[in-house]
Design brief:
With about 290 residues, this protein is mostly helical. It has helices spanning about 5-35, 40-60, 70-85, 95-115, 140-165, 165-175, 180-185, 190-215, 220-235, 240-260, 265-280; strands at about 130-135, 140. It is about 70% helix and about 5% strand. It is globular, with a radius of gyration of 19 Å. The protein starts with a helix and ends in an 11-residue tail after the last helix.
């Protein structure tokens, strides 16, 4: 007989964790929707954010969640020159060349992390990282609730940026038809650079939350890249609301699967959901398009 408290706690944990998964996938979704770029270095940007959070805590003594905007800005500034140097020259040459370029960047970044931090397993150790929060029969880690709240705020902020600002209009025009947007005066190269930076910033901020809730190594990015692809496929490429819904759905599925099969199967369950979604509904459960 199932323990009601265990099931309810598992579902609540899945919902909250799903919010963090949505934030980690948001940058990948936007890059795909606007630039048609399969950013295989997305996971390394996430891990880079986790290391920046660790540096902020260990060396500067600052809570990485308080410094989250600084970490996002730092990763955006680091990533935008990479886009200019590596991706912009390949514009109009199909998806394969940029994708393989980012695969090479992923390998290089992994090796740089290994040189700088070795293969040690690390975590961002904060007082609220392992502290439980109990409400009635539901018990969840406090970091899950904090991470969910932060993720929802960032996702909504990105939605407002895309739907209500001049940059958002230029971004949506570039996603719909970059040639027509350029004719109308949109600086598509600049929009693509800023979009790439925005995606890297979202990944880095998600990496801080993931690095606080879980341990990470220089190669952890590969796992979260695949999970991000699952969220993007479920939510629809470029769909911000869909990304949030898909992240929550995948988080619940993973959490319930881990409860029944064991925590070691959490990522396997997520990847199986990804494959099923890709086979049965490749356009996602929500319509595609940057919105």
């Amino acid at each position: 007989m199932l323990d009601v408290s265990m099931v309810s706690s598992s579902i609540a944990s899945g919902v909250l964790l799903g919010g963090m998964l949505a934030l980690t996938a948001l940058g990948l979704s936007i890059s795909l929707g606007v630039m048609k770029l399969v950013n295989l270095a997305h996971g390394e940007f996430l891990v880079g954010g986790a290391y920046l959070g660790l540096f902020m805590l260990s060396w500067l003594g600052l809570d990485p969640l308080l410094g989250l905007p600084l970490i996002g800005v730092a990763m955006a500034l680091i990533s935008m020159p990479l886009q200019r140097l590596l991706i912009a020259p390949l514009a109009g040459k199909g998806m394969e060349a940029p994708m393989m370029t980012m695969f090479g960047a992923s390998i290089i970044l992994q090796n740089l992390y290994l040189l700088g931090f070795h293969a040690d397993t690390r975590t961002i150790d904060t007082p609220y990282a392992a502290r439980p929060l109990t409400v009635g029969p539901v018990t969840v880690p406090e970091i899950y609730l904090i991470g969910f709240a932060v993720s929802v705020v960032v996702v909504l902020g990105v939605h407002i940026l895309v739907s209500k600002t001049g940059f958002g209009r230029a971004l949506r025009a570039s996603a719909a038809d970059p040639t027509a947007a350029a004719v109308l005066g949109v600086d598509v190269r600049r929009v693509h650079a800023l979009t790439f930076g925005l995606g890297a910033a979202c990944a880095a901020m998600g990496g801080v939350l993931i690095g606080t809730a879980f341990s990470f190594t220089p190669s952890t990015g590969a796992t979260y890249l695949l999970i991000s692809f699952a969220v993007v496929v479920l939510g629809g490429i470029g769909n911000i609301h869909g990304t949030l819904l898909a992240g929550v759905a995948l988080g619940v599925i993973q959490s319930l699967g881990a409860m029944w099969l064991g925590d070691g199967y959490r990522d396997l369950i997520g990847l199986l959901v990804f494959l099923l979604a890709l086979a049965l509904r490749p356009t996602g459960m929500v319509s595609q398009g940057v919105r």
